[in-house]
Specification:
Distance between the termini: 12 Å
Structural class: alpha/beta
Number of helices: 16
CATH topology: Amidase signature (AS) enzymes
Strand order of the largest sheet: 1-3-2-4-6-5-10-11-9-7-8
CATH architecture: Alpha-Beta Complex
Helix content: 25-40%
Shape: globular
Bound molecules: glutamine
CATH class: Alpha Beta
Number of domains: 1
């Protein structure tokens, strides 16, 4: 198994290895696994400068936990001077003049980014097949998808290229690829991590998260990424918890709600069985399982696939071919400039979302779709509030299936959207959730999702960590 962040941090401090050597090794692994297509951009020059700074910091007494640890950013986070594409032709040559809040924070603790990971275009997708730069392959089986939209980040971590990577989760894009790739993926509470400089998909749902091999490794990344940022109006001004100290909380008084709706018709038997076994392990660790119901869970997919495209259609209006991004050749009129630039710059799924979103927001349809979706969002959030009066966490399978075949669902958008059946409600309610490896079905990894009340990242990470102390699913890795 590749080393944990704690182990690497210890080796760095003991001078067994330098940050520069770690960065070079990660870049070499990325190069050796180019067939996965996990990266859009590798940036050796910037990585080596950052590594030198990290080595200098490590020579002092109080270097931060992540100093010298190599990682990668999803290509949705703006990086000053480094191309940021959002996997779109629209932004193929976009070089931001500033760093995202998350990028600043990880740089400030001297973590070393080696590059930008592949993703679904504008984070729209569940399979990472919607990228202008081509699909990403699942390291467990190259004929299968890694999940999406943070598929490049998930594949890079699962293949052992980097110990962690950033991701974003609007409807499951950290948790679902983590599940498909057999790693741990944390989506924090909405507002806990800055969205500043994170390219917008659906602003009321978008959330920066982290993909790593363990809950403990996610904890290190979250501790650096989280915090108030006045440049993001929805960032929450609230002190940070000590997530490291929280990890050691035991499970003896913990009540875990098992949501019956999360084991519904579309869930594969092998996935359900692995998740039930993992829940039995939680009982052995002292937790109490409680059967619960989230009666409006079936509204999550329809509500999400109205609200997310509605917000996307508004957010993506800024790509007009005038200020930045793709511009068509030889525009004849202003309208010609808009239509051809956007038609050429956006891929099919992004265009579909813009059409759906614009339709749902148009006069005459607003009440029938957008308003009803917002009402559904409220009752979905209320279901969680009710459940959390009874239990500390809610559990179920992260995704209804294991990683599916490349191409299997590309012709059927609704089948693709169904991959998010257990994840999107969490975003509609703004809650934190984690996916942890919980076993295998047909030789492919299965993820267990744990959902917590807002700002309960500490107990959530503890529940995942205690499980990982007692099991070894998270240490399994795919052969090269
Ligand atoms: N698969 C969902 C979508 O396509 C979620 C994506 C995400 O979380 N960014 O919208």
């Amino acid at each position: 198994m590749a080393s944990s962040i704690a182990q690497l941090a210890q080796d760095l401090r003991a001078r067994k290895i330098s940050a520069a050597e770690l960065a070079q090794a990660a870049l070499a692994r990325a190069g050796a696994r180019s067939e996965l297509n996990a990266f859009i951009t590798l940036d050796e020059a910037t990585a080596l400068v950052a590594a030198q700074r990290a080595d200098a910091a490590l020579a002092t007494a109080n270097a931060p936990a992540l100093a010298g640890i190599p990682f990668a950013h999803k290509d949705i986070f703006c990086t000053n001077g480094i191309r940021t594409t959002c996997a779109s032709r629209m932004l193929e040559n976009f070089v931001p003049p500033y760093d995202a809040g998350v990028v600043e924070r990880l740089r400030d603790v001297h973590a070393v980014s080696i590059g930008k990971t592949n993703m679904d275009e504008f984070a729209m997708g569940s399979s990472n097949e919607n990228s202008h730069f081509g699909a990403v392959k699942n390291p467990w089986d190259a004929t299968r998808v890694p999940g999406g939209s943070s598929g490049g980040s998930a594949a890079a971590v699962a293949a052992g290229i980097v110990p962690f990577a950033t991701g974003t989760d609007t409807g499951g894009s950290v948790r679902q690829p983590a599940a498909f790739c057999g790693i741990t993926g944390l989506k924090p509470t909405y507002g806990r991590v800055s969205r500043w400089g994170m390219i917008a998909y659906a602003s009321s749902l978008d959330c920066a998260g982290v993909l790593a091999r363990s809950a403990q490794d996610c904890m290190y990344a979250l501790s650096a990424m989280a915090g108030h940022d006045p440049r993001d109006a929805t960032s929450v001004a609230r002190g940070l918890d000590n997530y490291d100290a929280a990890l050691s909380s035991k499970l003896s008084n913990m009540k875990i709600g098992v949501a019956r709706e999360y084991f519904g018709a579309g869930v594969d038997a092998g996935v359900a069985a692995a998740v039930r076994d993992a829940l039995a392990q939680y009982e052995r660790l002292g937790a109490t399982l409680v059967d619960i119901s989230l009666p409006n869970a079936h509204l999550a997919i329809p509500a999400y696939y109205v609200i997310a495209p509605a917000e996307a259609s508004s957010n993506l209006a800024r790509y007009d071919g005038v200020r930045y991004g793709h511009r068509c050749a030889d525009p004849q009129t202003l309208e010609d400039l808009y239509t051809r630039s956007r038609g050429e710059g956006f891929g099919a799924e992004v265009r579909r979302r813009i059409l759906v979103g614009t339709y749902a927001l148009s006069a005459g349809y607003y009440d029938a779709y957008y308003l009803r979706a917002q009402r559904a969002r409220r009752v979905i959030a209320n279901d969680f509030s009710e459940a959390f009066k009874q239990v500390d966490l809610i559990a179920g399978p992260t995704a209804p299936t294991v990683a599916f075949k490349l191409g299997e669902k590309t012709a059927d958008p609704l089948a693709m959207y169904a991959a998010d059946v257990n994840t999107v409600a969490v975003n509609l309610a703004g809650l934190p959730a984690i996916s942890i490896p919980a076993g295998f079905s047909d030789g492919l990894p299965v993820g267990l999702q744990l959902i917590a009340p807002a700002f309960a990242e500490g107990p959530l990470l503890a529940a995942a960590h205690q499980f990982q102390l007692a099991t070894d699913w998270h240490t399994r890795s795919p052969g090269a």
